[in-house]
Amino acid sequence: MNRLPRFLLGFHILFAVFMIAPLAVVVLVAFTDKNYISMPFDGASLRWFTAILGRQDFIDAFYRSVILATGAATIASIFAVPAGMAIAWYKFRGRETVLNLLLSPLMVPHIVLGIAMLRFLSQIGANGTMVGLVLAHAVAVMPYVLRLVVSAATGFDRSIAQAAESLGATSWTVFRRVELPLIIPGIAGGWLLAFINSFDELALTVFIASPSTQTLPVTLYAYIANTIDPLLASISTVLIVFTFALMMLLERFYGLGRVLGGRS
To answer: Is the pTM of this model over 0.70?
Structure first.
């Protein structure tokens, strides 16, 4: 009986090492003092981190990616929250069809989605603009918000809202004071996943971005086409720390178990 739990524990440890090892290698390479990717290296240096400050194109692309991901995740949340609540709380004809339609960007390859968005945005004159990028990314990341909102709303006890209504609370008051606070972990988790996926999106962005709206992944992709040096590892390390800090912030306010689990 004790062998199975030990086997599962060992499997999880190996899986964690398998997932963390590449990130650890990238972080170590970022501290090399060589002009080329070297692992292991003889000496440690911060030269490739200070080199980031001299690349204004990467800095501008980073801020552009943050603005894009924030806008896309926010717009996706605005549409996904009411849709998820309706799907989770009400039974109506075609509910499964609506859910599958809203989740369809997960099943469509982003190359195909990028070509479709390129055609559509060109027709309305928004191709290569930041507005077009935000709208395209919002469509692509909406399923991440929707899935966690539906999960959080499904576990919500509707009798609490009904009790508030019986005491004279309006529908808006019930939503603002009762329903929204209880499903906010699912919304926060969905927003976080949408932000990360939008920030990291390459296949979709490369079709519809212009030279003035290139995001950090597109800029890195173009840089790799010409040269590969430890600067890429240092930028990746900064992004790892940025993501870790964001996750710790969510853990501080909501708890990662509630956020990523979408529990109310």
So the answer is: yes
